[in-house]
């Protein structure tokens, strides 16, 4: 008797909650699996064909005729050396990484019953990467197996934190999982970049490697880790039936005798082990662990008998290999052999995975998983609110004054007064002429990002949204870096216009696609995550392809820094900020209504479309000019509005000024700390805000578990 089809709530592409994995439906007794096995065999053949094409590509002039001659035993030594030393190791690395990430993502999705679980969204890759970089930064040299152990420890710790943060009453939600993973990954990324900047000689080449590259110097890493991978995959196949039970749900699995906790823990450990092996060999190659198992499950829905993990696991491995090798082949077709050595394969897979993530979001039914408990309520009394505004203003002035005094050269208060009156000496004059614009840049950019975040959260009715998470900041970064890349002598105004164009394009994509579901939280954040990931990958590709040996340039820009700013460069930001403040203040009532629901604004005469468009336009302008001024600074647009609502309540007449003051305060403090903590060395302000903002965001997630 044929089993009944899964209900709409069980279909991954049509789930009420976009990322909830469909339970495995039992195939009928004796159901033929010939079709499923034949499909996997076709995938193996496709992977073999890709491998054949892959081995013919490279920077050396060794093509098909030379390789055929080698097979016939008539090849020359140079062709054999290229094949053995370069192309076979790269091919072997691609196969190993594809198997690892495909299987790891499948198991993570099963044990969490969430289609968005992967080594990327659980911050496993970020944890493994920071562990490897930390070991290298402190001068420890390890073989591939030792590096794998370090990567495994870092990835497992990150996954444990994300799983704990994303769990809530009734289980982990899709958006909770994605946001927790993104927050932890951003914090770990900040630590990683800090280590790369502080120890550039010991971590040479790790920036490009951190984007995921298949380039190998031999087969040592693959041969050392291949047995571990084979054992892990074999173990997962042995316990495949238990994963089938877990996919049915905790209650059903327990009734059938499964020890859900142990199975889930064992699956996570095995998946992290596979992810760590992939990171050790090729660095964190993004989104393969998300796309490969999701594609496998979409295919399995339509193939009878393929829903069991004994077939899903090898199928995901094959799809993972096809994605990795396909991305590498495409990369070398597009850029040529030599350029493909410099541009990481992970950039291509990240862009592909980002598009796939957006596709998943569009397939999903609109669900509003908005983070109840994040919008904090009434705040203080009227007198207390006034005191908060006064205290924040005084604190900002005090911090700005202290920031002018501190740095690699310490000044006194009298020096600042002499500089203002034009009576300072040459040394004080030089220090103040370089330091004062930096302080001004931090204050203006912080206020702009905070106001942009406040408006975005109100328009999307999502207190977890902010320009960085929704891809607007990343789009501005792409636009600015593109101008710098194509026009090295571009003025700061040109960079600002490029940033504005990039931010506008990202906002149009994210909010345009999200409007299909009425800006539902699930769809909005998933599309924003995809655009943000693609933007980061494109930015990395532009920088590495044009200047592969200058990682500091990339890190400084993408980490957000006020270094080298001048007052004329801040004019666009100041103009946009001065124009935006009265516009937002005039629309404070609309912000209150839009943050409530759709019906109330309509009843009170607010035209939703034009109002949203105008407010989002202001947010894009603020974000673009802030990014052009100081680079990419994250979490400010999330933390400052939350803190403001916690202090003064939800009315935007008070939230807007307090958020602006707190944003300026946060970035100014971060810039001051970055300039003084390791003086004369410096840390970009964006790294400090990420390290401060990520724990605050995680605390919000933890708080919302109730």
UniProtKB/TrEMBL annotation:
Pfam families named in the record: FecCD
Cell compartment(s), UniProt: Cell membrane
Cellular component terms (Gene Ontology): plasma membrane
Presence of the UniProt keyword Flavoprotein in the record: no
TM regions (residue ranges): 34-55, 91-110, 122-142, 148-165, 177-199, 219-240, 261-278, 312-335, 347-366, 386-406, 439-456, 468-487, 493-513, 525-546, 566-586, 613-640, 652-673, 685-702
Region described as Disordered: 1-24
Molecular function in Gene Ontology: transmembrane transporter activity
Keyword line: Cell membrane, Membrane, Transmembrane, Transmembrane helix, Transport
UniProt xrefs under InterPro entries: ABC_BtuC-like, ABC_transptr_permease_BtuC
Membrane topology: Multi-pass membrane protein
One of the protein's GO biological processes: siderophore-iron import into cell
Family: Belongs to the binding-protein-dependent transport system permease family. FecCD subfamily.
Protein name: Iron ABC transporter permease
Taxonomic placement: Bacteria, Bacillati, Actinomycetota, Actinomycetes, Micrococcales
């Amino acid at each position: 008797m044929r089993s009944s089809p899964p209900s709409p709530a069980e279909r991954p592409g049509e789930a009420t909650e976009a990322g909830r994995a469909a339970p495995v439906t039992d195939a009928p007794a004796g159901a033929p699996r010939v079709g499923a096995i034949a499909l996997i065999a076709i995938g193996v053949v496709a992977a073999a064909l890709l491998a054949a094409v892959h081995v013919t590509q490279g920077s050396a002039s060794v093509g098909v005729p030379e390789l055929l001659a080698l097979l016939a035993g008539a090849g020359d030594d140079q062709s054999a050396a290229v094949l053995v030393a370069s192309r076979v190791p790269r091919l072997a690395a691609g196969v190993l990484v594809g198997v690892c990430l495909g299987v790891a993502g499948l198991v993570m999705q099963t044990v969490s019953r969430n289609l968005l679980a992967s080594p990327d969204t659980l911050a496993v890759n970020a944890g493994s990467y920071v562990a490897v970089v930390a070991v290298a930064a402190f001068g420890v040299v390890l073989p591939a197996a030792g590096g794998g152990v370090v990567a495994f420890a870092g990835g497992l710790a990150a996954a444990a934190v994300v799983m704990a943060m994303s769990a809530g009453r009734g289980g982990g939600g899709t958006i909770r999982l994605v946001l927790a993973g993104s927050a932890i990954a951003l914090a770990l990324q900040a630590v990683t970049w800090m280590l790369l900047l502080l120890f550039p000689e010991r971590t040479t080449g790790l920036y490009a490697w951190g984007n995921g590259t298949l380039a190998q110097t031999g087969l040592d890493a693959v041969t050392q880790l291949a047995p571990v991978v084979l054992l892990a995959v074999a173990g997962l196949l042995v316990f495949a039936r238990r994963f089938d039970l877990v996919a049915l749900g905790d209650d059903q699995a327990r009734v059938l005798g499964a020890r859900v906790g142990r199975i889930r823990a064992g699956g996570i450990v095995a998946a992290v082990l596979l992810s760590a092996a992939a990171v050790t060999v090729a660095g964190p190659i993004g989104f393969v662990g998300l796309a490969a198992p999701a594609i496998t499950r979409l295919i399995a829905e339509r193939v009878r008998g393929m829903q069991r993990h004994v077939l899903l696991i090898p199928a995901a491995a094959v799809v993972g290999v096809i994605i990795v090798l396909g991305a590498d082949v495409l990369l070398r077709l597009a850029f040529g052999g030599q350029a493909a050595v410099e541009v990481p394969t992970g950039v291509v897979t990240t862009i592909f995975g980002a598009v796939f993530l957006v596709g998943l979001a569009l397939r999903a039914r609109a669900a509003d998983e908005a983070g109840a408990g994040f919008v904090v309520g009434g705040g203080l009394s009227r007198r207390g609110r006034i005191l908060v505004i006064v205290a924040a203003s005084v604190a900002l002035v005090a911090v700005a004054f202290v920031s002018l005094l501190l740095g690699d050269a310490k000044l006194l208060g009298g020096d600042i007064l002499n500089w203002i009156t034009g009576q300072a000496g040459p040394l004080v004059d030089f220090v103040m002429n370089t330091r004062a614009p930096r302080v001004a840049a931090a204050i203006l950019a912080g206020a702009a990002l905070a106001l942009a975040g406040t408006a975005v959260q109100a328009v999307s009715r999502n207190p977890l949204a902010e320009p960085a998470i929704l891809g607007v900041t990343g789009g501005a970064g792409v636009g600015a870096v593109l101008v710098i890349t194509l026009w090295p002598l571009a003025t700061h105004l040109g960079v600002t216009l490029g940033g504005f164009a990039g931010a506008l394009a990202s906002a149009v994509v994210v909010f345009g696609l999200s409007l299909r579901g009425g800006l539902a939280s699930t769809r909005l954040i998933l599309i924003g995550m995809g655009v943000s990931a693609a933007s980061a990958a494109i930015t990395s590709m532009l920088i590495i392809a044009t200047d592969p040996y200058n990682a500091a340039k990339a890190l400084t820009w993408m980490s957000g820094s006020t270094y080298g700013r001048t007052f004329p460069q801040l004019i666009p930001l100041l103009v946009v900020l001065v124009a935006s403040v009265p516009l937002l203040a005039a629309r404070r009532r609309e912000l209150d209504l839009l943050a409530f629901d759709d019906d109330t604004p309509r009843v009170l005469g607010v035209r939703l479309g034009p109002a949203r468009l105008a407010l989002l336009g202001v947010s894009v302008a603020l974000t673009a000019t802030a990014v052009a001024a100081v680079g990419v600074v994250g979490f400010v647009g999330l933390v400052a509005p939350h803190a403001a609502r916690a202090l003064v309540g939800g009315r935007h007449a008070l939230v807007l000024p307090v958020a602006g003051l707190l944003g300026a305060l946060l970035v100014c403090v971060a810039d001051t700390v970055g300039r003084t903590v390791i003086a004369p060395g410096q840390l970009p302000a964006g790294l400090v805000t990420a390290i401060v903002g990520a724990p605050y965001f995680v605390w919000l997630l933890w708080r919302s578990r109730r």
